[in-house]
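Minutes, structural biology subgroup

Action item carried over from last meeting: produce the structure token record for 3,4-dioxygenase subunit beta (Agromyces fucosus). EB confirmed the sequence was re-checked against the source entry. Recorded below for completeness.
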Amino acid sequence: MTTDPRWLDEHGDEIDEDHRGLVYDIRTLVDRRRMLGIFGGIGLTSLLAACAGSAPAPSAGATSSGTASATPSPSASASSGQVDEVPGETGGPYPADGSNGANVLDDSGIVRSDIRSSFGSSTTVAQGVPLTIELTVRDAATGTALVGAGVYLWHCDRDGNYSLYSRGVENENYLRGVQETDAMGTVRFTSVYPACYSGRWPHIHFEVYSDVANAVASGPIVKTSQIALPEEVNGLVYATSGYEQSVRNVSQVSLASDNVFSDDGGIHQIASMSGSVEGGYTAALTIGV
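Output recorded by EB:
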């Protein structure tokens, strides 16, 4: 059999297979997989991209004009199909899930995507910079989207108050809602950017249930955790009217000092952001449970 001239040295001698380089190794690997009829998970595109060199990935951030760029969630691992399990966190003192007084989960109207207004006896609308929250839930071991799971999400308003608990909003139930994950394992809530109140990094609470039926019945909770909002976007939002008290509060706390995110700096809980102050932001996070 004639040797491919690409694998001959300048003297016409055949180059040993171990010294033909990465391109040869990839070609050989692909040929072997074709012979075996196995095509899944080879990651060929990633390997070829590595041959051509790589550039640093952009970070989740914002420009001085108030625009943030979307970046992949650090929790997702596309190459292996696995997703890092999101740390379990406290639900805090204002969950309204029946564990600490109020229970909004059994109220008609709690299953909704737009959580800006109260429902039932009040129609008060929470004000603030628009925020869409996209949470994608996956099986941590396999990376498979959890379809039909129930997600209960809540957070404070731009004054740092929690509906159903804080003084002046005890009779409101805004900024709370339940949704069912779609075919991609994703839920989307329409909300407003929360404040930074004293002692805590800006955050959003959530609970994951096996389905909506369990969520509204206060059934077993699969995971309780929190979403951390990134520093650069916090600064842009808190510079706008209505968030004045957040400016001082956020200057006195960091991810490293926060009593929830300080364990690892919130590496698996920091949302990726896109949008602007004028048009509103989208906070996206993929979590494993």
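Discussion: The chain has two domains: 5-51, 61-258+265-288.
Next step: EB to file the record with the rest of the batch.
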